[in-house]
Write a structure and sequence with these properties.
By secondary structure, this protein is mostly beta strands. Helices cover about 0% and strands about 50% of the residues. The chain is built from no helices and 37 strands. The chain has an eleven-stranded mixed β-sheet with strand order 1-4-8-12-16-20-24-28-32-36-37, with no helix packed on it.
Length: about 280
């Protein structure tokens, strides 16, 4: 039997826990700490509306919310600020779970040596982000300043903004190990990384970007906007015929190139073409 937990207008501040404040339970009144992702009940539906999470800490994953099992979690109009974890500074989704983040504000999330300064997803999870602002998130020694996804994860980012996030790889978004992402109507602004200031794709990852913009992102080495290795595929689609994407003022340490791409298809109106590594 499914349980439903609806949380409205609650503030969580300065808590320390092992892995995610939110645990699916039958209490219907409180967020509870979960010790490991697999303790979440099967077939749980969890909702949070107009809730504030601030300065919480997890020693493992999900500084504010951790989701796993077959849980379905929908979060609306919530604010996540200053939370930290090994991976997924604010939120973490794992396994067969689905996490939907709608009209939220995620800022100053910090991860250690895992992935995802704001949000981390792994092991077949589904992550949907709609109308959300992510800013100032970072990861100390890992991948994905805002979003880190790996191991067959499916990610969808729609009508959102990712700004001023930083990581070693993928200043905003990092995907690897067969992860896939569809990005639509999203702006990448002033993100930084060593490689892939906005997007980094590796390990058979697939990225489709449409009607999105990249501005003022900076990589110390390769890919001021997007970095893709020979194992990844990136497809960039226009918002209108004749326009491939909006990439402005992108800087990279080598060759000042906005794109460092092994396999990318860019469809512009009636034309489709490939871009390759700068060295051939």
């Amino acid at each position: 039997m499914r349980s439903v937990l609806q949380v409205v207008s609650i503030v969580h501040m300065g808590m320390t826990h092992k892995c995610g404040l939110a645990r699916a339970c039958h209490d219907h009144q409180t967020w509870r700490c979960m010790s490991l992702p697999r303790v979440l009940y099967t077939y749980v539906m969890l909702g949070a509306t107009e809730t504030t999470f601030m300065n919480n800490t997890a020693t493992d994953f999900g500084g504010d919310v951790g989701v796993a099992g077959a849980a379905v979690v929908n979060i609306y109009s919530a604010s996540f600020t200053g939370s930290t974890a090994k991976g997924g500074g604010a939120l973490f989704v794992h396994g067969a779970a689905k996490l939907s983040i709608n009209d939220c504000d995620i800022s100053r999330g910090a991860a250690g040596d895992g992935h995802g300064g704001c949000v981390a997803a792994e092991d077949d999870a589904v992550l949907q982000i709609v109308g959300t602002k992510m800013s100032g998130c970072s990861i100390r020694d890992g991948c994905g300043g805002a979003i880190g996804a790996r191991q067959r994860v499916k990610v969808e980012v729609i009508n959102s903004t990712i700004s001023s996030t930083t990581a070693s790889l993928g200043g905003a978004v990092c995907l690897f190990h067969n992860a896939t992402a569809q990005v639509h109507g999203t702006q990448f602004l002033e993100n930084t990384a060593s490689d892939g200031a906005a997007v980094y794709a590796d390990g058979n990852a697939t990225v489709i970007v449409q009607s999105s913009g990249f501005a003022d992102n900076r990589a110390n080495r390769w890919g001021g906007a997007i970095f893709a290795t020979t194992q990844a595929q990136v497809k960039v689609l226009p918002s209108t015929p004749g326009w491939c994407w909006a990439i402005r003022r992108q800087m990279a340490g080598h060759m000042h190139a906005p794109l460092h791409l092994a396999h990318i298809v860019c469809a512009c109106g009636m034309h489709t073409w490939w871009a390759h590594h700068p060295w051939g």
